Amino acid sequence: MRYISTRGTIEPVLFQDAVMMGLANDGGLLLPEQIPTISSAELTAWGSLSYQDLAFEIISRFATDIPAPILHDLINRSYSSFQAPLVTPLVKQGNLFILELFHGPTLAFKDVALQLLGNLFEYLLRERGQKMNIVGATSGDTGSAAIHGVRGKENINIFILHPHLRTSPVQALQMTTVTDANVHNIAIQGTFDDCQNMVKALFNDLAFKEKYALGAVNSINWARILAQIVYYFSAWLQARTAGCQTDISFSVPTGNFGDIFAGYIAKKMGLPMNKLILATNENNILSRVINTGDYSTGAVVPTLAPSMDIQVASNFERYLFYLFSEDANKLRAAFDHFTASGVMTFSDAEVTQLQTDFLSKTIDRETTLTTIARYQQSAGYLLDPHSAIGVAAAEQCTPPGTTAICLATAHPAKFAEAVELATGSKPPLPPSLAGLEALPTRCEVMAPNQQTVRDFIAKHAI
């Protein structure tokens, strides 16, 4: 399997090189040349597999240049730290299912991909005799999951930028209390988009990228998307095992479009699903483009769901590559215009296709809080605010006659303040979060200045 760039100006690369490259050298995002398809017979046979074996069946179709025994070992080690035997268990709540993606080391869905990516990096660097400086931006969960995926690993330094005081307190502590020598936290006095823009600028400076051997853990790295495809198949199979006979839709709270894009690829592979429901908070550029064709940036609004407080969704570019019929020239022109104006325009036919591929709903603060409270009161089930947004969107727009699977992306204890606002009490702390506030922290607070960040990375690079 080879990988191409959405911008269309690099030679195709193999999976290992795609992982190491992160952002394509022409500034685009990497995608497989062909998407493998899964037959109904294969899907039926997968119903008896463990999560790890299911992951191997899917990932091996994309990672054809990694020997099967090594890939098996990487996958098994990646999910050995998860607390749930099913890794991503499905639970029934009322008329819908909730896919719990928060049983990994940092209690967020990002662990599913980043535990694997950390092990992939370690393996590839050892095989190649190389070193890497990982640079990433986070609105909360990616940073802690990435840090815990590579902390203490040989030949890797990691630099994570997060918006200062704009993550939840627990998210910040999960990052800044990791004081391993190879971990560097940078708090930017700005928004997540400021962080993301600086990281992209570093990767687009090919001389800097090569000199300091930069690697990507953000969902610009294809391996992140690939690992997330697996739990869509797992959820569908679990629902069928639980007796669900209706068509299935998936409701996905998203800010950067990575998680829902994994579902889009799963559907293109042949996973039967009715609709992908894209749920946003008040930072609703993605809902607006789906519902009205309006893809224009605005100010980031701080919300109860900070991981979704994003205006520019980097993974939307991957979807646009398919929306534009894989026309890289058209995509480059669209992004040139977007960079200059903050606006991207679509034809009526393209908006129709968007609305065919997705349903979308914007969920406001009040609805988020009432959804958390309602599930706690009716079933004793706690949702974090991101998951509540996905549940609320599913309740409002799941097509009649279908069953929704809602992706629960974080443990409620990571957003204790929001849960307390909704229910009147904070959720109990799981063992992995107890005592975080008493631990020493290390973090550099910086202005949103590209040169300052660049100088810091150059000084501390491995």
Largest sheet data: 6 strands, mixed
Number of strands: 16
Helix content: 40-55%
Average pLDDT: 96
> Roughly how many Å apart are the termini?
31 Å
Class inferred from helices and paired strands: alpha/beta
Radius of gyration over alpha carbons?
A: 20 Å
Shape: globular
Question: Explain this structure to me?
Answer:
The structure is a single chain. The chain has 462 residues and is an alpha/beta fold. It is built from 19 helices and 16 strands. A 6-stranded mixed beta sheet has the order 4-5-15-10-11-14, with helices on both faces. Helix 3 packs across helix 4, helix 5 runs parallel beside helix 6 and helix 16 crosses helix 17. The longest helix has 20 residues. The radius of gyration is 20 Å and the shape is globular. The model has no long low-confidence stretch (mean pLDDT 96).
